[in-house]
């Protein structure tokens, strides 16, 4: 029932690897028998429960566009659809290393953090992308530098202690030896407000070009700190026309976001708990408490909650640790809608195996609960009705049958449906199916019965519907909403 958000990057951008990720996102090849059904009225496509995340903290638009084109090819060949999430950079502090050469930092030495990005990065001098650091910190403050923040590897993450502030520069004592190597190193000062806009000019440019061109399904709003951050982002999307239905997931990454969590949740379509950053801004032993509280609030509000940083060790290893496997299971039991994989799939050595492993852990949790293998089938055009049902966390899966609608802009005719279906891919327990647009399902009750038969046949093929099970069907007949309970025969 729990979904997977996989980040595509250098090690997961070929058609072959992406196809493997899409297939690994499902519990076995459940689609073959369904696709072989010859139906006169309707054909349905089960969407994979993978959401592809494009992280614009690194890489340019051209790089991500090539990856997206490969994703489209993989989707077509694998006969699975996939939603697209654009992750903004936001007010993220970055080490600027234009040479891309590894930088060695020695314990006990000093290094200067400078806003002068024209200077070369060395073991004694690190340019950063923020001119206000010297005004935000004081002597004794801790600063963390790491690749995607905490990776668990002492050799690639470094703790600094502010020793002195000299005009715009910050002199720091290096507290552990490390080598900074790779495309992205972020800088974090615990519980210090960074005076930068949440949606930066760079973010707006990427959204209005790459995002608009590709009609993104989700926007991950990094470093959301207040409700107005979400409102500002929504206003910006609404002005772009084709992105006015794009859902905004507020990414909670620091204490300020937690303080204003309730108001952010009210404005956002969903929440992403960025536990890597939270583990730096908070004492690590406090993160799980806030995680449980945040997931509970999201569940009560009926809004999707996504948890990050669950199998960090699989970036370099084929198997997760026992603690990580338990962490995934607990996130599922707490009510997470999705697990977000970052470095594990972006630059990790085993992206396909990671998705498969996380999927198996999620499925094992579900088996342990021993829920009934029955299903709710919901006919919907916007997807909203099915999401409202999933809000109440029924113990059975919800099959959302999305009915396309014919739409015109006076220049041509198009069908809606796939966009609305893809946005259900991140909601726990909700599995969208897309009806054939050539046959409008609202035309006759016979048509509804035909698509219902296909949905039931698919449920049988998937193993979620068995003889003598009861199935709840929610559908609209004219202006009336009807709920039917069907008891299946042999």
Q: How does this structure look, described?
A:
Its EC number is 2.7.1.40. The protein has 16 helices and 25 strands. With 490 residues, it is an alpha/beta fold. Strands 1-3-4-14-15-16-17-18 form an eight-stranded parallel β-barrel, surrounded by six helices. Strands 5-13-9-10-11-7-8 form a seven-stranded mixed beta sheet, covered by helices on one side. A six-stranded mixed beta sheet has the order 2-23-20-19-24-25, sandwiched between helices. Helix 14 links the parallel strand 19 and strand 20.
Please name the CATH topology of the largest domain: TIM Barrel
Per CATH, the class of the largest domain reads Alpha Beta
Kindly name the structural category: alpha/beta
* Count of helix runs: 16
Largest sheet: 8 strands, parallel, barrel
The outline comes out as elongated
Quick description:
With 490 residues, the protein is an alpha/beta fold. The protein contains 16 helices and 25 strands.
Properties at a glance:
490 residues, alpha/beta, TIM Barrel, Pyruvate Kinase, Chain: A, domain 1, eight-stranded parallel barrel, 16 helices, 34% helix
Topology at a glance:
Layout: E1 3-7, H1 15-24, H2 32-35, E2 45-46, E3 50-55, H3 61-78, E4 83-87, E5 93-94, E6 103-105, E7 110-114, E8 125-127, H4 133-136, E9 142-146, E10 158-166, E11 169-174, E12 178-180, E13 186-189, H5 201-213, E14 218-221, H6 227-239, E15 247-252, H7 255-259, H8 261-267, E16 270-273, H9 275-281, H10 284-301, E17 305-308, H11 322-333, E18 338-341, H12 343-346, H13 351-369, E19 376-380, H14 384-391, E20 398-402, E21 405-408, E22 413-416, H15 418-422, E23 430-434, H16 445-462, E24 470-477, E25 480-487
Parallel strand pairs: 1-3, 1-18, 3-4, 4-14, 7-8, 14-15, 15-16, 16-17, 17-18, 19-20, 19-24, 20-23
Antiparallel strand pairs: 2-23, 5-13, 6-12, 7-11, 9-10, 9-13, 10-11, 21-22, 24-25
Helix pairs in contact: 1-3, 1-13, 6-8, 8-10, 9-10, 11-13
């Amino acid at each position: 029932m729990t979904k997977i958000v996989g980040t595509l990057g250098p090690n997961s951008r070929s058609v072959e690897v992406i196809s493997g990720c899409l297939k690994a996102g499902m519990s076995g090849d459940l689609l073959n028998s369904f696709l072989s059904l010859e139906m006169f009225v309707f054909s349905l496509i089960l969407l994979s429960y993978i959401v592809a995340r494009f992280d614009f903290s690194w890489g340019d638009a051209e790089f991500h566009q090539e990856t997206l084109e490969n994703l489209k090819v993989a989707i077509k060949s694998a006969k699975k659809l996939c939603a697209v999430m654009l992750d903004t950079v936001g007010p993220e502090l970055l080490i600027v290393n234009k040479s891309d050469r590894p930088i060695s930092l020695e314990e006990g030495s000093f290094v200067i953090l400078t806003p002068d990005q024209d200077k070369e990065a060395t073991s004694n001098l690190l340019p950063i992308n923020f001119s206000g650091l010297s005004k935000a910190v004081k002597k004794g403050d801790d600063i963390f530098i790491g690749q995607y923040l905490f990776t668990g590897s002492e050799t690639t993450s470094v703790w600094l202690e502010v020793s002195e502030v000299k005009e715009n520069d910050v002199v720091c004592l290096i507290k552990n030896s490390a080598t900074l190597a790779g495309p992205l190193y972020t800088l974090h000062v615990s519980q210090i407000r960074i005076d930068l806009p949440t949606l930066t000019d760079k973010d707006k440019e990427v959204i209005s070009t790459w995002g608009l061109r590709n009609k993104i399904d989700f926007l991950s709003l990094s470093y959301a700190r207040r409700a107005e951050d979400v409102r500002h982002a929504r206003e910006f999307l609404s002005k772009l026309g084709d992105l006015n239905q794009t859902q905004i997931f507020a990414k909670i990454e620091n204490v300020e976001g937690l303080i204003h969590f309730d108001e952010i949740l009210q404005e956002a379509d969903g929440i992403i708990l960025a536990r890597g950053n939270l583990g730096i801004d908070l004492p690590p032993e406090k993160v799980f408490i806030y995680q449980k509280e945040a997931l509970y609030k999201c569940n009560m509000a009926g809004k999707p909650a996504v948890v990050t940083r669950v199998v960090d060790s699989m970036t370099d290893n084929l198997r997760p640790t026992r603690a990580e496997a338990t962490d995934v299971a607990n996130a599922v039991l707490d009510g997470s809608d999705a697990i977000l994989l970052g470095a594990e799939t972006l630059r990790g050595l085993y992206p396909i195996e990671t998705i498969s492993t996380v999927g198996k852990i999620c499925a094992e949790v579900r088996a342990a609960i021993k829920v009934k293998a029955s299903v709710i089938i919901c006919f919907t055009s916007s997807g909203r009705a099915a999401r409202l049902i999933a809000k109440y966390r029924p113990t059975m899966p919800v099959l959302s049958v999305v009915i396309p609608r014919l739409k015109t802009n006076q220049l041509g005719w198009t069908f809606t449906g796939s966009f609305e279906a893809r946005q259900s891919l991140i909601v726990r327990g909700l599995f969208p199916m897309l009806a054939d647009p050539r046959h409008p399902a609202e035309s006759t009750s016979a048509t509804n019965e035909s698509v219902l038969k296909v949905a039931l046949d698919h449920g049988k093929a998937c193993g979620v519907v068995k003889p003598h099970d009861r199935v709840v069907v929610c559908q609209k007949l004219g202006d009336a909403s009807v709920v039917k309970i069907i008891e299946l025969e042999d």
